[in-house]
Fold this protein.
Amino acid sequence: MRWEGSVALVTGASRGIGRAVARAAAANGARVGLVARSEGELDQVLEEIGGRGSVAVADVGQPEEVEAAVGRVEADLGPVDVVVANAGIGLYGPFVEVPVAEMDRLVRVNLLGTMYVLGAVLPGMVARRRGHAVVVASIAGRLGAPFEAVYSATKFAQVGLTEALAVELSAFGVGVSMVNPGPVDTAFFEARGHRYERSFPRPVTAERVAEAVMSAVERRRLEQFVPRWLGQTVVVRHLLPPLYRSGVRRSFRQELAGLNASRP
């Protein structure tokens, strides 16, 4: 699958990683369907990519809105060749303090939102025997992230979904990839209500993640880590689980001490 001459649909395209992916896709010759909840910001992105695309306002957690958005993009640009399921939200804090409504919100946007988008686009790719789907997951979908348990659970589910689809869709010549970034220098952390405070790993740029998305499609790779060395931590987790868990507890010792002190 080549970006040049393709129609790409990107969710969460109004800011952060999605915005960077839209710009990179357009720079590589694609026409881009921009999907997010904010029409004003989407119009700005459309202007940034020289008008090479279409805007469709939708909440990915609402299946009817997703269907309508995909229909709008395909009516404007033609059948979708590449879909990048990127829209997502975060949440920080101890699991025991997470309200049920927040659990539902994360599952609806991060997991069901990914399923709704893929479910709307993949049947057409299967019928045409052509296309590529990319899920922007997270290293938190490979390594359980303390104090982000619900977010991490949705990302683990995305990884399982992607791995299963990679096998199913191979029968139709449709490629599937996942991109697993570590912390990214965007407004994601402020939006989740807790800024990123750790000195390691350092956040990467959204543009770097977008480069990984471009590469995953053109090289037909199932999985990309950003930065690449994060993949080694997954190997350690599987080969030396006690060592890995001990290291995580040490890394979060201050947070764990504070959590314990806050309880009677």
Observations:
- DSSP finds ten helices and seven strands in the chain.
- The radius of gyration is 18 Å.
- The first strand starts at residue 7 and ends at 11.
